[in-house]
Amino acid sequence: MSAKQNKVKARQPRGFVDRNAADLRAQESMLRIIRQVYESYGFEPVETPFFEYTDALGKFLPDSDRPNEGVFSLQDDDEEWLSLRYDLTAPLARFVAQNFEDLPKPYRSYRAGYVFRNEKPGPGRFRQFMQFDADIVGAPSVSADAEMAMMMSDTMEALGIAKGQYVVRVNNRKVLDGILDAVGLEGEAARRLTVLRALDKFDRFGVDGVRLLLGKGRLDESGGKGDFTKGAELSEDAIDRILAIFAFADAGSLARIAGVEKSFGGHARVDEGLAELRSIRQYAAEAGYDDSRVLIDPSVVRGLEYYTGPVFEAELLFDVLNEKGQKVQFGSVGGGGRYDGLVARFMSQPVPATGFSIGVSRLMTALKNLGRLAVDETPGPVVVTVMDRDRMADYQRLAAELRKGLNAPGQPLVPVEVFQGNPKQFGKQLQYADRRGSPVVIIQGGDEKAAGEVQIKDLIEGKRLSSEIEDNATWRAARPAQVSVAESDMVARVREILAAQQADKDAENV
To answer: Quick one: 404 and 320 in the same domain?
Structure first.
């Protein structure tokens, strides 16, 4: 068999993405800001494995009423089924139940990590993506739910998304469940789920599309597929009553609550949910979070079945261009809610809980569109060039001295590396340093070694001189782009050059 036939094709699995250094640094910068907000509310970190026993995930799987659907699963040597986690909430419920006696109650925790969905990938829909969750377990009061909504508001603003460019919408599954009971769906689990999924698609399909899904069904002709989604087959009267909750697009929180009360008030479940929403609105308003930041919205539906009370959705209100160049509203970047039954699956007692999850990858895209994706700047490395490959020990010694001398505790990191490519063409080494964004290179040939010296080349100043200065007199008067110093002065001189470069950068930013 030929070498060509043995060659493996380099290809990326569908629904998965590679992330380069810039992506990862931007992500870490964003996670750091979110982490600071979460910790300011008293949350502490915890980490759970990527895999859980499949039965621990239960039937609470994304867009599915059947266990094992939508997840990646395998069988271990003990013939136990394991699944990659599809969110960070189900693993937290298992962790809390397993460590219940040792944890403070209420237990405040946050987690950032990748989750996995065995679903058909598409534009903006991945099989692996990162979430950043915060949860309070053991808090029965809706004051905890109000706190979650307020914390999400603080997070958006800390990330540079200004008031008016986002809103945290709050609803209550008790209200939705009561409405479904009121239109005659009590005890009809399948149809209730169909209705909830239809309502959850309001932002995509609008009133007309949701009306079809609540009735006979909807034919999706996008892309020429002609896929038909069976509807909930409700009566026209029931459909009209349900769609009434979407009729308050420009109303404030209290008006929206009053609208639902007018159509469905008197039903015990609805009244209980509306009372909780009034409390959340009061707590948020008195803390300074008005309707422009935290808004009661009875049209919010969260897809997962384990929510039992208030539900939240952080929505971005500005427009972006889609794949076809059309303006569309960005929409949701996170959500969550109360799940009082999830931890209790593992225990003999009820355990109230509420939480919120941010879609990190989606939020990063939003920040890019706003031009506010802050990146923790990591400088390029100081590169020690190689003039003689037989003297690698000398070059490694110089690099070690630079690392030790430039990287004092508490100071910004200065990377240092020895060029490890083919040293034959010195110009290629300078090209490499330039491509790596190196501020400085160190040069020591045989003559410099004999004299106990090194050449230090300021690449940033060199670029400026070559692009801005044309006459020799000005060139000679400028800061030198390359100097010869004693080895003993190398670290101090490199530090001076880096400080001068930073001063120039700060002056440009004023």
So the answer is: no
SS3 at position 370: helix
Angle CA 2–4–7, to nearest 5 = 115
Q: Is 339 annotated as a binding residue?
A: no
Per-residue pLDDT tens digits for 247-294: 776 789 999 999 899 888 889 999 999 999 999 999 999 999 999 999
- Considering the domain architecture, whether residues 364 and 395 belong to the same structural domain is answered as no
As a whole-number percent, the residues of the chain with pLDDT over 90 amount to: 54
307 annotated ligand binder: yes
b/e per residue 360-377 (b: at least 16 CB within 10 A): bbbbbebbeebeebeeee
Based on the domain organization, do 360 and 393 belong to the same domain? Answer: no
Question: Cα separation of 243 and 231, whole Å?
Answer: 15
Number of domains forming the structure of the chain = 2
Are the CB atoms for 48 and 111 separated by under 8 Å? yes
Residue 64 has pLDDT above 50, yes or no: no
| 117 is annotated as contributing to ligand binding | yes
**254 labelled ligand-binding:** no
237 is in an annotated binding site: no
In a domain, 481, yes or no: yes
Binding residue per annotation — 302? yes
The tens digit of pLDDT for each residue in 127-145 reads 899 999 999 999 999 999 9
Q: Is 88 annotated as a binding residue?
A: yes
Within a domain: 12: no
